[in-house]
Structures are given as structure tokens and as C-alpha cells.
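Handoff note, outgoing to incoming analyst
You'll be picking up this chain. Sequence as last confirmed:
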Amino acid sequence: MPLFKKIQHDSHTQILVWSIVESKSDLLLGLNLTKRSLNRINGMRSELHQKGFLSVRHLLREAGYTDHDLFYTDDGKPHLKDGKHISITHSFTFSAIAISDYEIGIDIEKNRKKIIKIAPKFVADEYDFMAEENVIEFLTVVWGAKESLFKIHPDGGLLFKHHLPIEPFKLSDKKTRGWIKKDNFYEVYQIFFEQLDGFTLVYATN
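Most recent structure output, in case you need it:
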């Protein structure tokens, strides 16, 4: 399947989304994978995860990169050899990457009822402005926003409920702001979100 969606956020940042409908063998076609990537795929028990991993490599190719342009630091964060920032996500039948000249974090999640049950683990003041309708979508935006911020923070050790407050928003806004507040790190980021066929796409940037 071709690229599902491309968002040119501005001249510095692009978002690419893939809808995973191919077989694993089809996704392997045309990819030149590093030995590290081949080892990672072989170590994955879930074909769903393998397909997510491979679809991300197709997104890299859409953006003009190859698997050889991508590397990971010891903290598990992805980087591009040309110095641009990259963030990666996949969930079930969607994957997405964000590439930017600036710090960037991205998350895509399937809208599922189970998020209501786990919400007390990551929602704090956000309950104060939660609407009665579309609760699943609202909570998924909050989770995706905090996950995106988590991917930006350089040192880890963040508690979603306490260190990553999200400012009030409505789903129709399609944007809000989120903070990273931990020790001496105190910064605000722009949050953008939208719905894609039962999934929520969220990304955070300066």
C-alpha cells in the first residue's frame, strides 16, 4: 500500500503515516536492512510487531532515507545520521514517523475502551476539562500527548501523571500544549492531534 498520509507541518517538520495491509513478505520487498534490523526482526515473536517495524522502514524510504541512515543510542532513542530529529511509532495496523529540524515526539494509538480503566495511572488535572462525550478519544489524545513528550525528554524517569501536564483542549481544537516539568527541566511544547480510521495520531514539537 502506498503512503497513507503525509503532513507537512511546516518547512522544518514532516509526518508520514503508513496503513499496514501488506504481508510480512511483501513488506520485506525493496528494503535494504542492516544486520541489526534483521536480528531485531528475527527476535520478534509477533508478526504484528514485525510488520510495524518493516512499515517504518518504508516510511523512511518515503522520506528519502534508508535503514542505514537510522541508528539508536543506548537509551533506545532513534536518530538520523544527518542530524535531523526523528520519532517513531506503530500500533496494530498503523505506523508513523516524524522528522524535524527540531525536537519531535510522535505517538499513534488505537482508540480502545480499556483506556478508561487505566486512565487513573496517567491522568491528573486533565480530568477537570474532560467532556462527557468521546471520552475514549479524549483520553487517547492525553495518553498520546504524554507519550510524545516522554520521547522528547532526554533523561527519562518521567511519571506521566505528575511530570507531563496537558493544557485544556477540546477534540475539535486539534491542538493544545503540553509541559515537561521535572527537576530543572521545565519546557512547553505544541501538541497536535487528529483521528485516523479509529486511531489517534498525536505529535509534540517546539
